[in-house]
Amino acid sequence: MIGSLLAAVASSIGYGISTIMQAVGARRARGLGAVLQPLVVAAFVLDGLAWLLSLAALDHLPLFVVQAVIAASLVVVVLLARVVLHATMRRLDVAAVVAVVAALVVVAAAGGEQPAVHPPDGFVGLTITAAGVVAVATLAAYRSGPPVLLAVLGGLGYSIAAIAARAAHADGDLLDTVLQPLAIPIVVGGVAGALAYLRALERGSVGTAAAIVSVIEVVVPGVVGLTVLGDFVRDGWAVPAAAALAVALVGCVALATSPANAAAESGDTPGGDDVRTPARSG
């Protein structure tokens, strides 16, 4: 369990650091030139490593634990934005950081190590269909869809990818995951989620989009894991786990609306220049 939990924490830290790296890199160039910045390229590589670590964590930990830890990458983003980008950090942000970290300790203890189980009949087809629906909806909404809708689609895309990854690990190691049908919703859901979320950041409020995605990618996979994929809460820990998840989500929402998170996600400079950067929260 310790190894899987460390993988989830490392994944969360990786996503948070990647966000700051992209923000700094994007300030050195505009438009497509920002994507070619070495720091931004390195950030994309770090994103990939963080994703692989999340897959390793999903092999032995329930979805509600892994997704809550990954959503807490907002903690890393806000703290690093304060140090690296000199962004404003409110007293509320400090309280939220402490609350989220404390809540995650309880969530991790309530989950414990739980190897993935084989999904029920029809699960694979349903998951592939869901990923396809989200992908089509993302393409339809991409040009002029409301930012809130795009954020919802982003959260659903990420959720589908996580759910499929948790179910896929029931059949073996990482190579087995890549070679089975559930790899389709992992990729399609992840790509659709990333596109929708980036578009939501571009067209709407950074805080609103980050909050919506954070909540959805914790709640939806958590519910599916508990009701369909055999995840469970340890005896006597149901109430503490529910309370801790609620605290963690409230804390993540507070951090999502932080000026520090907005500076990191949108690439706003202290002087107000906007150089948006593609970054993922959680």
Number of domains: 1
Gross morphology is globular
Flag low-confidence runs: 269-279
Number of helices: 13
Distance between the termini: 21 Å
Q: Estimate the helix proportion, in percent.
A: over 70%
Overall mean pLDDT score? 86
Quaternary arrangement of the chains shown?
A: single chain
* Largest sheet properties: none
**Whole-angstrom Rg:** 18 Å
Share of residues in strands: under 5%
Order of helices and strands: HHHHHHHHHHHHH
Strands, total number = 0
Quick tags:
282 residues; mainly alpha; 74% helix; globular; membrane; transmembrane; Integral membrane protein; EmrE-like; transmembrane helix
What does this structure look like?
This protein has 282 residues and is mostly helical. The chain has one domain. The protein has 13 helices and no strands. It is globular, with a radius of gyration of 18 Å. About 4% of the residues have low confidence.
